[in-house]
Design brief:
Elements lengths: L2 H20 L4 H20 L3 H17 L4 H17 L11 H34 L15 H8 L13 H8 L10 H8 L2 H14 L8 H4 L3 H33 L4 E2 L24 E2 L8 H6 L3 H6 L3 H10 L9 H16 L3 H7 L2 H14 L6 H28 L2 H10 L3 H16 L3 H20 L1
Antiparallel strand pairs: 1-2
Length: 466
């Protein structure tokens, strides 16, 4: 475990007991205490590079105050252009930011774009209320435009400041205004989320020691037999998953201990977005709560969902919500596959400028096209048993596709990624292309094609409702 990972672990570990203490604070004290704790952690780990995040926050606030109508587009442009400057800062003779500054900047970018969209929605619905004399039906709408102080407090709130999960400004406001935070569930869901973290941690350390990533870059590795090289990506992706399972479950526990993202089950909350229906408390009934708003990983479904496109839904779930609400709908393309490709391109840019990100993320649309074609031309024509066999094969290939794409994500350099993919003969790309060719050769009937298209449209509708 690197020194940076030890610092992250320390921050996560400290945030959990701190969260329980925050339940005893009044809204005003909670707000300033969360700001001071988050800002202190940022300054301690990022030092002078804290200025990058501060410039981003103030720039976004100026955009919102100048033109709330154009704020979503302008804030997206501003934060993403600043990300480019942030990553190329050494070329301007400035010191290279720390990994902690990068983590803060990534999450801050999501928050600022979301805040601009929330403010725009607030003003638009307010105008509708004035003209129609009716209360707005929009769920989770702001009650007022946030001040600069509110914006700074939201931006530097200690909860998930470096590790996530992403949460909207309204979720933050609801947290501050919780009427009886001490009565909300805490220890039980927190321990439930933490119970497998030691397992993930041990698995990460053990397998990583046997299958180190750097070995892939050596000539000795390339001299190993094909099946060993092919299996190695499975081990690397396993290490990758265990690392993030442990980190994100720990980060969720920090949110749970503080009560952030705690809503009644009847609110039907979604990761990142929060409640999806209006709800009211009934004093005569015992309320049941959940923390789905801050759920960032579904470990079980990440492992066992069948489709490539579903795999994205259960991984980094709050960021997926952000992408599907602020990037996917504004794609310049109409095709589902091309819109997915556009979203993956933006996601790759958000992660960084390394070519490996783009090679990996832009393989996802090809995989989606392959599975959609095979579903229409093969699965739709099979009986129940045949479909079950098809799904198991599909699941196996989905996992291998993610193994394959993970290599680009962790190797980062184009040369290293291409060298590895070449060593296994671009096997996933070849299989995906073959599936598309075979599927089209079989010429699934129009009815089958419509069935898959309806499924994709249903998924997109669900994503928008989320």
């Amino acid at each position: 475990m690197s020194s940076d990972e030890q610092v992250y672990l320390g921050i996560l570990a400290a945030s959990i007991p701190a969260g329980f203490l925050f339940r005893y604070l009044s809204p005003a004290v909670k707000q300033v205490a969360a700001l001071l704790l988050g800002l202190s952690a940022t300054i301690a780990t990022c030092q002078i590079h804290t200025l990058h995040s501060l410039v981003t926050v103030i720039g976004t606030w100026i955009i919102i105050k100048s033109s709330w109508r154009l704020a979503p587009a302008l804030s997206l442009s501003w934060t993403f252009l600043y990300l480019l400057f942030f990553r190329l800062v050494s070329r301007f003779g400035l010191p290279q930011p720390t990994p902690f500054a990068n983590a803060v900047q990534l999450l801050l970018t999501l928050k600022m774009v979301s805040l601009a969209n929330e403010v725009q929605t607030f003003h638009l619905e307010k105008k509708k209320e004035v003209s129609s004399f009716a209360k707005s039906p929009v769920i989770g709408r702001l009650s007022r435009e946030p001040s600069l102080y509110d914006t700074l407090c939201y931006s530097y709130c200690y909860v998930g400041i470096m590790t996530g999960p992403f949460f909207r400004f309204q979720t933050y406001v609801d947290w501050l205004k919780q009427p009886k935070p001490q009565a909300l569930p805490g220890w039980v869901p927190c321990l439930q989320r933490l119970k497998l973290v030691p397992v993930y941690g041990v698995a990460f350390i053990t397998v990583n020691s046997v299958f180190p990533l750097n070995y892939v870059r050596t000539e000795e590795f390339l001299d190993r037999n094909f099946f060993y090289r092919l299996f190695y990506m499975t081990a690397v992706f396993f290490v990758f998953r265990m690392r993030f399972f442990a980190a994100w479950c720990g980060a969720e526990a920090g949110c749970i201990s503080a009560g952030l993202g705690c809503y009644p089950e009847k609110a039907l909350s979604k990761p990142g977005g929060g409640p999806t229906v209006n709800y009211s408390s009934d004093p005569s009934e015992e309320e049941k709560y959940d923390f789905k708003t801050i759920q960032n990983i579904d470990c079980y479904n990440t492992e066992f969902c069948v489709k490539v496109r579903h795999g994205m839904r259960y991984w980094n779930m709050t960021v997926q919500w952000w992408l599907h609400h602020y990037i996917y709908p504004n794609s310049p393309f109409k095709s589902y596959t091309l819109r997915a490709g556009w979203t993956m391109f933006i996601s790759a840019y958000w992660h960084g400028l390394h070519a490996g990100y783009y090679l990996s993320f832009l393989t996802i649309p090809l995989s989606i096209a392959a599975e959609s074609t095979m579903e229409a031309s093969v699965r739709a024509k099979l009986g129940p048993r045949g479909q079950s066999v098809f799904d198991w094969v599909h699941w196996f290939l989905k996992m291998r596709a993610y193994d394959y794409m993970c290599m680009g994500f962790v190797l980062l350099k184009a040369s290293d990624t291409i060298n590895y993919w070449t060593s296994i003969y671009f096997i996933v790309h070849v299989i995906a292309v073959c599936c598309i060719i075979v599927g089209r050769a079989l010429k699934g009937g129009k009815r089958d094609g419509r069935k898959v298209n309806k499924e994709e449209k249903g998924e997109k509708t669900g994503e928008k409702n989320d």
